Amino acid sequence: MNRRNILWSAVSALGAALGVSSAKATTATAPSNKLKVAYHLSDAEKVHFVLGNIQNHIDGVGGPEHVTIALVIHGPALKAFHSAQANPDVSKRVGDFSQGGIELAACGNTMKAQNVTLSELLPGFINAEKGGVVRLAELQSQGYLYLRP
């Protein structure tokens, strides 16, 4: 083998080694690059639609472990999540989402306006004490993508 071939082989091997190393590093850090999405729900007539969108999102990415989702609810839509008024499909989905790690945030201002406490909502909700829109802004500042279906 002449020197040019030896040099070319060495450079090629080094490039391949760096490529493999880079691929391993990317694979090792991939879970921390999980997509983060904030869904905004305020319209009562869109409750089932938005819950369906979230389920389609989870199914589309291969399960809740592949995406971080927060659902922020305020305004008239919150009534659909009152324990006493929730229909069975909404109750089931909320339970599934809560167990799947989805943040379910209820606007503190809307809760006051509707005279409802956190314990009167379906299980799994947290109180967005500063307000639903404030919680949405906080999530966006943390890198969440904003969706309002």
Automatic annotation (TrEMBL):
Signal peptide residues on this chain, from the entry's feature table: 1-25
Keyword line: Signal
Matches recorded under Pfam families: DsrE
InterPro entries: DsrEFH-like, Sulphur_relay_DsrE/F-like
Gene3D superfamilies xref list: DsrEFH-like
Keyword Glycosyltransferase attributed: no
PANTHER family: BLR3518 PROTEIN (PTHR37691)
Stated name of the protein: Uncharacterized protein
Organism from which the protein derives: Bradyrhizobium yuanmingense
